[in-house]
Amino acid sequence: MDSSSPFRSSRIAPVVAMAAAVALTLAGCSSSSGGKKSEESADGASAGKASTPQMTVALVTHQSPGDTFWDIVRKGAEAAAAKDNVKLVYSADPNAGNQANLIQNAIDQKVDGIAVTLAKPDALKDVIAKAKTAKIPVVGLNSGVSEWKNLGLMEFFGQDETVAGEALGNRLNSEGAKKAVCVIQEQGNIGLTQRCAGVKKTFSGTTETLYVNGTDMPSVKSTITAKLSQDKAIDYVVTLGAPFALTAVQSKSDAGSKAKIATFDLNKDLTSAIDKGTIEFAVDQQPYLQGYLAIDSLWLYKNNGNYMGGGEQPVLTGPAFVDKTNVDAVASFAAKGTR
Amino acid sequence: MSMTHHAEPAVSTPPAPGRKESDGRTKQRPLALRLLARPEVGVFLGAVAVYVFFLIAAPPVRDGSSMANILYQSSTIGIMALPVALLMIGGEFDLSAGVAVITSALTASMLSYQLTMNVWLGVIVALLVSLGIGFLNGWMVVRTGLPSFLITLGTFLILQGVNLAVTKLVTTNVATDDISDMDGFGQAKKIFASSFDVGGVQVKITIVYWLVFAAIATWVLLRTKYGNWIFAVGGNKESARAVGVPVTFTKISLFMLVGFGAWFVGMHQLFTFNTVQSGEGVGQELIYISAAVIGGCLLTGGAGSAIGPVFGAFMFGMVQQGIVYAGWNPDWFKAFLGVMLLGAVLINLWVQRTATRR
């Protein structure tokens, strides 16, 4: 082999550079602002722990990995699990067929309850019927507000995406907007399409839909820029996720546009943007609450036979508006990544 | 294969007329055919066609700031498409390139934030991590002799998982914390993510880097020994080794070059957007590879150029933004892109076959 290749000497280079980096560290190049040190050490919500016997609950979502929204759902579920002495088994797959398999997996594990998201209800119909046969209570969360009863779920926690869209459309009317562009970051996602459809329904101005590639931020940025420079009449940009709203702020300045920005969903950077006024408002469906209630409801059912929503109506977690008037109350929770 | 070695950058400088070989051993083919045989000519013509098409169809494209935006989009693809193309000329390819960008950005961001250090420390360590990933990819490919498809598919999955799991472990969230108020951020932003004014148009600095890197890569490919090595190892590894080309060094260094590109684009993203979501980057590797292939790099290695992928990336940016500027329904974007990709490859094939036929 060519182990005597010129490469050998440069293998030392990373080591040297690493040593240099360590030296730099020791030399005290610490940041005087920001960073971990400035982060407040805030404790999560904690309300003791139930003394009921441990039960196992599976939460199976259609999350795609690394999305800030789903992380908040999961944190809510974990908080409820910790409080209720529940062993939480979390699994997720954006592919509906795989999600069905994960639910089957939970049935095979003989869990005491299953919480599922119904992004593609038809694909989950059969496996949810199997869970019923196995006498495992199933609740729904997040997506599927129009389908959960047909599938025989016990309860549902989430927001009606169309209702949320309609609420945002109404809000745009009261803000005096004339032309809005609705930015969808994932083509073919029903919930996202429903949001934009809801906006279109109530908004008295005109709306247009813009698709962007959600896994590539620079591309999101230039596509929104392109739209804003193509159509100068746009006075409101509506995004469907917090990170995309923050990117839209940059697009706006790149395009020299005067458009205002509103969004669905929240994260911690977004609250400070609302505070600064670069983003007008967010429609928050409270994902933490969805995860929390889904788990807590299964615990309540097992230990007290309760039905949230009376077994008839969905429990709506949104749309809750967050804007400059109430952002202060939300910011500290968002900073912990739970709101 | 030899055609790729000594030809001049035909696109910008047409060869002087009357330069005929006279010894009669080889019959010089007509200039037009020789030009067409260059891998980047097909894509150059394609890029011109797409540009003219949108110039007519989408009036906003004629505006300078629109062009700056299209070029910005192209540059973020193009900066990565360059090393990816060189690697392909060298006979390998890298499926981990898309998520590696995010790995680099996450490393820099989390390291500086968690240790409350000057962000430059994170930037440097991220560079080492990126080069390390490239080294590992290359080393495994050379050592095992397995197809780079398998090796880098493995690292792609590993990085995807590590990006998510480590971010969650360290920050307890799946996105990094905002580092824009930390020391060194302003400097780093100036270098990786600033823009400057040209006649009232805001031009992103990545466009400059993209073109400079492309010029350097072209020079390296056509004028240096290392450039010859790249063609040689991509053409035939064994005969290259037999004539003394350091195959191991060349291949590993090419993978590390992709690592460098991933670091650079990762730093751009970090200092543009202040935070990084750990799930991003998936699928981008195929866009980089497509830009290289549209740009005339063969999947089998041994042929290609550095200027071709520049036009390849430009076509991506042009089509993606052009559809928006034209105000069309972007539902068709991916289908359009696929047709363009197949079209470009087929035209390249046809042109080269026609042009090289004696």
Automatic annotation (TrEMBL), chain A:
Its main location: other. Residues 29-52 are annotated as: Disordered. Residues 1-19 form the signal peptide. The keyword Disulfide bond does not apply. Residues 58-301 form the Periplasmic binding protein domain. It comes from the Bacteria. It is found in: Cell envelope. Keywords: Signal. One of its GO terms (molecular function) is carbohydrate binding. Gene3D superfamilies: 3.40.50.2300. SUPFAM superfamilies: Periplasmic binding protein-like I. GO terms for cellular component: outer membrane-bounded periplasmic space. PANTHER family: ABC TRANSPORTER PERIPLASMIC-BINDING PROTEIN YPHF, D-XYLOSE-BINDING PERIPLASMIC PROTEIN. Belongs to the bacterial solute-binding protein 2 family. This is Sugar ABC transporter substrate-binding protein. It comes from Streptomyces asoensis.
From TrEMBL, chain B:
Keywords: Cell inner membrane, Cell membrane, Membrane, Sugar transport, Transmembrane, Transmembrane helix, Transport. It is found in: Cell membrane. It holds the Pfam family BPD_transp_2. The chain crosses the membrane at residues 35-58, 70-88, 119-142, 149-166, 201-222, 243-266, 286-303, 332-351. One of its GO terms (molecular function) is transmembrane transporter activity. It is a multi-pass membrane protein. GO terms for cellular component: plasma membrane. Residues 1-25 are annotated as: Disordered. Part of the binding-protein-dependent transport system for D-xylose. Probably responsible for the translocation of the substrate across the membrane. This is Xylose transport system permease protein XylH. It comes from Streptomyces asoensis.
